[in-house]
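Sequence in, structure out. Go.
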Amino acid sequence: MSLRIVVAEDSVLMRNGIVSLLTRFEHEVIAEVSTAEGLIEAVEADAPDLVITDVRMPPAHSDDGLRAAVKLRARHRQLPVLVLSQYVEQS
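Output:
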């Protein structure tokens, strides 16, 4: 089953890798965005089957991607959202 996916990742290298992997398995990436605002706009415009987003994204580079994911789930309760992070905090 092929899915229509929006990928939100501010790192170009990581985003390209995710898109490459998804398309290799015959999924359709309908939007690639690098900001939390772009993620929300892409979902509202294209109604994907799945969202893959990073936690830390512009504009604030804090938890903007996660906040966008929560907002999207509130609006679209059936929308699956996969949240990824490369962030490591050393305490």
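Check: The first helix runs from residue 12 to 24. Helices lie at 12-24, 36-46, 64-75.
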